[in-house]
Write a structure and sequence with these properties.
Blueprint (H helix, E strand, L loop, with lengths): L1 H24 L3 E3 L3 E3 L6 H25 L6 H23 L7 H16 L10
Antiparallel strand pairs: 1-2
Helix pairs in contact: 1-4, 2-3, 3-4
């Protein structure tokens, strides 16, 4: 059930990302969820959140490589780590930027997605009752 829900969410977010790339190529800027703006008008706190999430994800995998060497990861595990990084960074950036409380739906949405991906990306579900 969780893996199916995760596949649906990942599929929808992937289509969302492709649509936004195509829109940008056509000269239309859209930011989450479906706000259309003129070029270069994406709120600074959103851009900063995504930028810091990329850096946090890079740092995570860098230290993971240094201390645990190479361990195979599935794409869903990478997405899980990036969405968690985005949630953490967005929360702190939004808080320090003192954005309006209505903007926190962005953080809440990705927090829920990160919980779903966390359970869907686990290698094994242990049975404690065996």
């Amino acid at each position: 059930m969780v893996k199916t829900l995760a596949k649906i969410i990942i599929g929808l977010l992937s289509l969302w990302a492709l649509a936004f790339i195509i829109a940008e190529i056509m000269g239309v800027t859209i930011y989450f969820p479906f706000t259309i703006v003129e070029r270069q008008e994406i709120p600074y706190h959103r851009i900063t959140s995504v930028r810091l999430a990329v850096f946090l994800t890079f740092a995570y995998f860098g230290f993971r490589y240094l201390f645990f060497q190479s361990e195979k990861l599935f794409p869903i595990q990478f997405l899980d780590i990036y969405i968690k990084s985005l949630t953490i960074c967005a929360f702190f950036v939004f808080y320090t930027s003192q954005v309006d409380i209505r903007e926190y739906y962005f953080v809440l949405f990705f927090f829920i997605v990160s919980i779903i991906l966390h359970f869907a990306s686990r290698n094994k579900i242990r049975s404690y009752f065996n």
